[in-house]
């Protein structure tokens, strides 16, 4: 397999943003996991205080992309007693706009998944092959496309500065970034849909993708990166503030280079990632999902992880607690936090016992573009 860089080459790529001294990469600490957990809470509290002073972006808008099936045993790791083997999750894109200190407008797309090409991720491709077409059509619902949503919001593709994902599972970026060679499966050499955009990604994840571990292989499409120009990526090490009220926080565990979006809005601080798939997974004591509250109480677990890959489970747990500490309480229901899963648990009649107790559904901040 060819890849545009090896682990050592990633260090030569440019970076972006202002580093956050308050948050360290605890996955690299020599301390025991329990000590790292205590440190994560303390660091999150300190960062909350300073991040709130950075301001707010101009607008935050949520755009639904696709609802699809996902194994219950992955999404509600060990805790669920639902009879349904699958639950449904809705993938959503967040569009964030702000102005830099010099007045320059910026646009960030968080989770702008190419849904059509993402289906060829080995796990989902294998699942689709085993699922009758009539059943798949009932379980998979497309709501809109990345480019369609941007057109509706009045944003041109060449207005977009940054693309960001919490991690690169399922992502095929060839149509977004273009390629340097003809792609046989696409019968074309794609031109970049976002000609100015750079992908903000943890350096750890790019390095890891150059030589995947067997536990990682079902969830990545590394071959699709072989002809993507390396200069389209902006690797970062750890956490950064990208703009007023916009931060990228490293939250390793789900994958080694996992990262979360943190935004400050008119309702307070929101956090988004796929470390958990429901807001109630961060306050499971308030969940009415079968088994969740009892499991959390019995095992003294304060979060319920999303665990399709368990690269470093203790680190993922600690990252989820860090996210939990950063997020403000929901104004709609203060039992739950302003944590917005990048893939949010969605009720469906086909999946009994998996309808969430509480769902955000969307985030809206500022005046939406016409």
From TrEMBL:
The keyword Zinc applies. Belongs to the metallo-beta-lactamase superfamily. PANTHER family: METALLO-HYDROLASE RV2300C-RELATED (PTHR42978:SF7), QUORUM-QUENCHING LACTONASE YTNP-RELATED-RELATED (PTHR42978). Gene3D superfamilies: Ribonuclease Z/Hydroxyacylglutathione hydrolase-like. This is 4-pyridoxolactonase. The keyword Zinc applies. Its cofactor is Zn(2+). The lineage of its organism: Bacteria, Bacillati, Actinomycetota, Actinomycetes, Kitasatosporales. Signal peptide: none annotated. Keywords: Hydrolase, Metal-binding, Zinc.
């Amino acid at each position: 397999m060819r890849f545009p860089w090896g682990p050592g080459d990633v260090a030569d790529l440019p970076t972006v943003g202002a580093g956050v001294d308050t948050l360290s990469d605890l996955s690299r600490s020599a301390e025991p996991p329990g000590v790292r957990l205590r440190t994560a809470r303390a660091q999150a509290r300190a960062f909350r205080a300073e991040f709130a002073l950075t301001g707010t972006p101009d607008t935050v808008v949520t755009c639904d992309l696709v609802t699809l099936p996902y194994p219950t045993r992955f999404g509600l790791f060990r805790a669920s007693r639902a009879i349904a083997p699958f639950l449904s999750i809705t993938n959503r894109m967040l569009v964030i706009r702000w102005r830099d200190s010099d007045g320059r407008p910026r646009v960030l797309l968080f989770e702008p998944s190419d849904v059509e090409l993402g289906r060829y991720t080995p796990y989902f491709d294998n699942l689709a092959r085993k699922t009758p077409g009539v059943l798949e059509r009932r379980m998979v619902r497309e709501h809109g496309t990345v480019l369609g949503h941007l057109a509706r919001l009045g944003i041109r593709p060449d207005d977009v500065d940054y693309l960001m994902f919490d991690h690169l599972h399922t992502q095929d970026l060839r149509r977004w970034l273009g390629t340097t060679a003809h792609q046989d499966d696409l019968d074309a050499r794609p031109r970049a849909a976002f000609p100015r955009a750079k992908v903000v990604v943890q350096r750890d994840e790019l390095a890891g993708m150059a030589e995947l571990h067997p536990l990682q292989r079902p969830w990545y499409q590394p071959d699709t990166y072989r002809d993507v120009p390396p200069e389209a990526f902006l690797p970062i090490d750890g956490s950064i503030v990208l703009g007023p009220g916009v931060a990228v926080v490293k939250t390793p565990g789900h994958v080694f280079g996992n990262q979360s979006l943190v935004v400050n809005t008119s309702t307070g601080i929101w956090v988004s990632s796929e470390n958990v798939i429901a807001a109630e997974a961060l306050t499971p004591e308030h969940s009415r999902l079968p088994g969740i509250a009892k499991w959390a109480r019995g095992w003294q677990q304060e979060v319920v992880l999303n665990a399709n890959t368990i690269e470093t489970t203790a680190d993922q747990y600690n990252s989820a607690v860090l996210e939990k500490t950063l997020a403000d309480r929901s104004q709609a229901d203060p039992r739950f936090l302003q944590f917005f899963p990048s893939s949010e648990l969605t009720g469906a009649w086909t999946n009994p016992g998996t309808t969430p107790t509480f769902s955000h559904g969307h985030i809206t901040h500022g005046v939406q573009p016409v």
